[in-house]
Amino acid sequence: MVRLFAAVSLRRPLILLCAVALALGVAACGNHHPHMTAGANGTQDVADANNNGAYVFAGPITYQLQVSRQLNQYDLEDSQYVRGLPGGMSTSLGPTQLWYGVFLWAKNQTDRPQRTSDRFVIVDTQGNRYYPIRLNPALNPFAWTSMRLTPGAIEPRAGTIASQGSTQGGLLLFKVSTSVYDNRPLTLFILGANNKKLGSISLDL
């Protein structure tokens, strides 16, 4: 009986220790970013469609989706986002077209200067591709442009109109077909040299 009691007494601390270790392990797993999954070539792909605020590591630059939504060119706020269009392009839309804005934030988290991308494409589930319209940043201060970022620097730069606006991001403006509502989810691909895919973000619509 003494031996049996001693064995039981020794087992209890061991069980408690295992329980604590298991609890700590579960807690540690809960600290992983819920929107990140490993992608090819070391990139990070965002899988969750409701991902405003999620990060994607595309090459040396970390990108974050601030907002993505349909724009109304007649709305007071949205009208400023469709300024600076290429010559000859009207803000008017056809019956099956809509304006779509993607607002991005980026940071250089390396120890060397890096340049943000100026190449993007949206792809729907049917394989249709939409490219951002190149806006004139002199006429549209929200326009996303490729920038050389020093270590730790961000885009849009602090103190700029884009950084202080309601979206707090640089604008990629797309003219897309209304069929995108039937072909969701949409995926934004961040491209590098030779249109190499560096990362992707699933978009809200």
The fraction of residues assigned to DSSP E strands is: 25-35%
Q: Total number of β-strand segments?
A: 13
Tell me the span between the first and last alpha carbons.
70 Å
What ranges have pLDDT less than 50 throughout 5 or more consecutive residues? 1-50
How many individual helices? 2
| Average residue pLDDT | 81
Backbone shape: globular
Going by helix content, strand content and strand pairing, the class is: alpha+beta
| Estimated radius of gyration | 24 Å
Helix content: 10-25%
Biggest sheet character? 5 strands, antiparallel
N-to-C SSE string, H for helix and E for strand:
HEEEEEEEEEEHEEE
Break the fold down into its secondary structure elements and pairings.
Layout: H1 2-29, E1 36-38, E2 44-46, E3 55-58, E4 61-71, E5 97-108, E6 114-115, E7 119-123, E8 129-130, E9 148-149, E10 154-155, H2 161-164, E11 170-177, E12 186-191, E13 197-203
Antiparallel strand pairs: 1-2, 3-4, 4-5, 5-10, 5-11, 6-9, 7-8, 7-12, 12-13
Record keyword descriptors for this entry.
single chain; 205 residues; alpha+beta; 16% helix
Overview of the molecule:
With 205 residues, the protein is of the alpha+beta class. Helix content is 16%, strand content 33%. It has two helices and 13 strands; from the N terminus they run H-E-E-E-E-E-E-E-E-E-E-H-E-E-E. The longest helix is centred in the first third of the chain and has 28 residues. The protein is globular, with a radius of gyration of 24 Å.
Summarize the structure.
The chain has 205 residues and is α+β, with helices and mostly antiparallel strands.
